Every structure is written in structure tokens, then in C-alpha cells.
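Dear colleagues,

As part of the handover before I leave the project, I'm documenting each prediction I ran so the next person doesn't have to rerun anything. This entry is a single chain, and its sequence is reproduced below.
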Amino acid sequence: MTSVITAQQIHSALLNLCDTIEEEKDYLSEVDGAIGDGDHGVNMAKCFRGVKAILETADAEDVGAVLGLVGMEVMNSVGGAMGALYGTMFIKLSSKSTGKSEVNLQDLSVMFSEALSGILTIGKAQVGDKTLVDTLSPAVEALAQAASQKQPLELALSSFEAAAKNGMESTKDLLAKMGRASRLGERSIGHIDAGATSCYFILRAFATSHSE
């Protein structure tokens, strides 16, 4: 049983993420269409096509370098808040893993805590506001708890993924307090948030990276 994730495994997981976003683009836009602009899937797919092109020619020896490349591409290619949020996520992940050829559970916990902090700083959303924070925050908490308990990496990542999924699903019953969906008031209840959904796909890629 492995206790680390290598740069190569993260590189492979990110390539798989690009394919997942492409496959799920219609679903993401459908989810977004219920309470938003309906273009989340299209924008994410366009962005991650660019990410894939960069990853296909990138070295996979430094975890932080790979994540930094993704962050800059996302920041530059997705318009509006989502580009800033996801770009910040990957750049913050990168900042705590630069120079590392592999990362362990403690590293991952620090990385994702930094990513959450960055997103909370620029996005101003909190848990319960019906955003990607509802997916990310419980996942980060689960990872921190697993790290403090020195759980096996595989178990920790399973808890991380489960918490992300539960967080995503919780947005269905929430009243939107941020973005376009907030204008709908009570009508926003009953629909899963699109950003929370795409965030889950991203976190799931990391959760399965140890098996790549």
C-alpha cells in the first residue's frame, strides 16, 4: 500500500480530469442552466482542453510545477469568477508542493488547506452559500482529520472524496447567496450548484490519483 502520490500520478490524474470535464460538459451546463447562465460546462471544457494540451508536453517530475502550469492556464482561459477561483486553487496547491517529486498525506492536507484559504479570500463565500466551497471545505476538513490521525493514504483519500461528494449534494437543499443564482431566491433551492459539481470532479481526480 503506497503512502505517497508521485508527480507522474498527479500528472496522469490531471489528464484524466481533462477528459472527465469534456465528457461531463453537457451535464455541467445542464446543471448550471437550472439556476445560472447555462455555460459552465462549455467554459470548463474549453479551459481544460487548453490544460490538456499543456500537460501533454509538460514534464511530470515536480508536483508543484505541474499544478502551477494548470493554475496559470485556468486563470488565463476561464472568464469571470470561476477562472479566478479554480486558477487560485491550483496555484495555491502548487505553492505548497513546488520542488517535490511526490507528496504524502500531510503534504496533501497542507496543500488543500492553502487552496481553500485562497478561495475563501478571493471568493468571500462560506459553507452554506451554495458554491464550490460547500464541496471543497468538508473535503479539506476530512483530509486534515485523516492526517492528524495518521490514516493510510488510501483511506484518507476515500474520506476526502466522500466528503466532497456529500458537500456537492448538499447544495441541492441550499438557498443560493452568491452569483447569478442568488437572484432567484427560494427558486434556487432544489438544484445542485454547478461550481460545486465541477469542484467535485476536480477533487475526485486527486482522490483517485494514487491508483494512476
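The chain has nine helices and two strands. The first strand starts at residue 4 and ends at 6.

All the best with the project,
I.
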